[in-house]
Task: structure prediction
Amino acid sequence: MIESADNLQQIASEVSVCEKCKLHATRKNAVPGDGPATARIMFIGEGPGFHENEQGKPFVGAAGKFLSELLAAIGMKREEVFITNVVKCRPPQNRDPEPEELKACNAYLERQIAVIKPKVIVTLGRYSMEKFFPGAKISAIHGQARTIGGRLVVAMFHPAAALHQPQYRSLIEQDFKKLPELIAKMEAMETPTTADEDPQQMSLF
Result:
């Protein structure tokens, strides 16, 4: 996977000097993403916050701590997954990302997905959900896995939601507990097939 790792590094290098939207003017550090090119799960959040902007890494604040706890509860470590956001620079005052900002970062995200080829993508929050489920309501589809582009995509509430509204904590925890089974299903479907047969097998899921 050396080539993939180099590709991720290339994407990160481009993000670090990107000036495709106005967010570059107020950032301290761009936040390309973090994790191995071999990750089976890819988490896509919304955008960097204060701590992420300071450190250049995703999910390092309170929401990131909760994300690590959620992963630990299902026997996984952050080092095993890839974590990124739909926008790679912090929107001022943590405001919602604007359409042109989402558009500017989309190519980077698509390239990351193409390099990593995750078996499962987990969207965290409304804006990352909107990329895969346009017009959907997260309250209606959270925790439900759907096959998109030959992989499973699961929309979940952002971990920050549990920090601000405790009633979401149990929902997020329940949704996370489904992930090991989803990964196992995808791997079981791929095991008896050859690489050329994978697309057809995926479509049957």
